[in-house]
Amino acid sequence: MNSVLAWKPAALLRFWPGIVIAAVIALAASFISSSYGGPQLLFALFIGLAFHFLSNDPVCRPGIDFCSKGVLRTGVALLGARITLPQVASLGATTIALVVAAVLSTIGCGYLLARLLRRPLQEGILSGGAVGICGASAALAIAAVLPQTRQNERFTLLTVVGVTALSTLAMIVYPLLVHLARLDGEASGIFIGGAIHDVAQVVGAGYLISNHAGDVATIVKLTRVACLVPVVLALCVIFQTRGSSTEVDLPALLPLFLVGFVLTMLANTYGLIPPPLVELLNTVSRACLVTAIAALGVKTSLQALAQLGWRPVAMLLGETLWIAVFVFAGVLMLR
Question: What is the pTM of this model?
């Protein structure tokens, strides 16, 4: 509700300095990415980190907080415009089962690694969900329903950095791997779409192999994105129940951004959204996520990230290896 009220003109007058800062950082990151290549979200994060000194400014802080929460949830809600139900159904039951199993097992892997490395279990769930579903976007969506603590905020930023960097590396390495394994276009697309974290890197790696592999990889990846709703809703129920006797400020049981995600996906499925509007919604969603990442970067210092230590990095690497091996083994069994 707060994020909706924040769009009122009176609230925007109070928030505009921070909103402008985050928007300018997002535009700079977009310009660098389009002009020189590279991951847009990572650029937004790094530029935002350089302006951390503004996070304690009483004039800028309200807008920065709003971008990191309200704008973030708007971007996640609009992700549904990328998906239609027939796209998911065209993969077949076996492939869909493999994708869902990969997502769930990766979240489970994160949970176990968090216990093994003696880190908070929320960190294992967050990193496992980011690796298993859709990278930085999933990390931001899951973080929105976890207890809002400073440690969780810092870990969310580290997860965004980690999954973006690992996705970029995978975009280069995985096409070589499928070539060495002599996988056909469909099998290559299933592996690429099932193992790489972020949507942009999946598309890049898939079409680097072939057009058919790129098409299959995109649909597989969007199927993983569709898992965002049930996973985040389940986590919301879990943490709402566990936090009922605490003073932690938890979101509503059914967050509005999840409702928006489902409605947008259904509207796109039944052709209620014209193709030009679908493109516009995808652009707006991406812009919201980049702006939210920029704001989160401003709110976090490198010193605070360094205090997390090596264990969170080990979790991300372990989860990345797990989902790659799991999907690759599944693809070999389906051949």
Answer: 0.70
